[in-house]
Amino acid sequence: MQIAEARSRRDFRRFVRIPRQLYSGLPGFQPPLDLERTLLLDRRVAPFFTHGEAAFFIASDEQGRPLGRISAQFDRLTPEGRTGIGHFGCLDAVDDPAVVAGLVAAARAWHAARGRHRIEGPFTYSINEEVGVQVEGQDRGDMVLMPWHPPYLGAHVEAAGLVPVKDLLAYSVPIEQGARWRGVRFAELPAGSRITARKLRLGNLAAEAAIMTELFNASWRDNWGFIPLATAELTTLLRVIRPILRCDHAVFLEHEGRPAAFAFIMPNGYELFRGFEGRLLPFNWARLAWRILTHRFASKRVTLLGVRTDLRDTILGARLPIVAIARLIAANPQPAEIEMSWILDDNVRMRRIIEGAGGTISKRYRVYADPVTGSEGA
């Protein structure tokens, strides 16, 4: 086995294709579009590289066939106190613990050379994008911006010396259960609250992204692993998915004329390119264009929530995210299923609310890290 850093454009294109080369035919795996992965990962276009750095590593056999891949990255927006921890991501490999161990060692060495002596992940590229190794629910299929991994990968990560540090959950809410959100405690606003609701303004996505970023960061800044979401990243995402974006895909609640809370849902874009095997050429461009015009999504994902800083610890602020979700679900009756992801395994309050409204755990993702020694902090 050889592990080498991907430095050329040819190497990077090879890096992007590796998951579909390794996992094609496995139950539940849907190859993402090479173009979509390139927009997410390419240092020439990905907004992450305005505030972060990364390296890509490929494991190959003696004949040059791919065995796996990994990225090593660092986000300069990482809060003080966690800057000694390096992240890894894009971890995919054949069913061989030696391959995974070698890839993890390559990411660890890259960070150690830059003064970071613990690694944590996988994140692609940060906690605000794809997170964790999927350890349950592979047969439930694909979901936009949620990773897919074969069942063996988590065990190989642990064999490489990393330990589990956090589990993340995806909940499935059948749309027929959506009406139950109206019965959830706090789902209705108290009389006289002076809250008004509006939809997503498609004509000014940059401004909408700025509002969502501010509210999201205010809500989650004290949560485990928090790294601020950058407005440029969310703006880019909204513009990329603009052909399938509708005004009903976000609900904004305003208090006395100021943004107070929001909830955002994304159509499952993977539905548009099923059967493409990751490629748009030579004829899948036309198929994709037709599907964008005619497709009715069977699944959507509640992706982002947020509430204003000065309302966070108030009774009203506790109600606002639930109200926003309830109205969002009511405005999106088409899909057969709504996924709410991800939810921290230890976020008991949110889990109880979702389960009370008919949600069931459909997938589980796990984040790993080097063990903490006696001389280190978390």
Q: Which helices and strands, and how do they pair?
A:
Layout: E1 2-5, H1 9-23, H2 34-41, E2 52-60, E3 66-75, E4 85-93, H3 97-112, E5 118-121, E6 123-124, E7 130-131, E8 133-136, H4 153-159, E9 163-174, E10 195-199, H5 205-220, H6 231-240, E11 250-255, E12 258-267, H7 284-294, E13 299-307, H8 315-331, E14 337-344, H9 348-356, E15 360-369
Parallel strand pairs: 4-5, 13-14
Antiparallel strand pairs: 1-2, 2-3, 3-4, 5-15, 6-7, 8-15, 9-14, 9-15, 10-11, 11-12, 12-13
Helix pairs in contact: 3-4, 5-6
Total number of beta strands: 15
| Helicity level | 25-40%
Number of helices: 9
Q: Beta-sheet strand percentage?
A: 25-35%
Report the average pLDDT across residues.
Answer: 89
Order of helices and strands: EHHEEEHEEEEHEEHHEEHEHEHE
CATH topology label of the largest domain: Aminopeptidase
Silhouette = globular
Rounded to an integer in angstroms, the radius of gyration calculated over CA atoms is: 21 Å
The CATH class assignment of the largest domain is Alpha Beta
The CATH architecture term of the largest domain is 3-Layer(aba) Sandwich
Please summarize the sheet with the most strands. Answer: 13 strands, mixed
Q: Which regions are unreliable across 5 or more consecutive residues at pLDDT < 50?
A: none
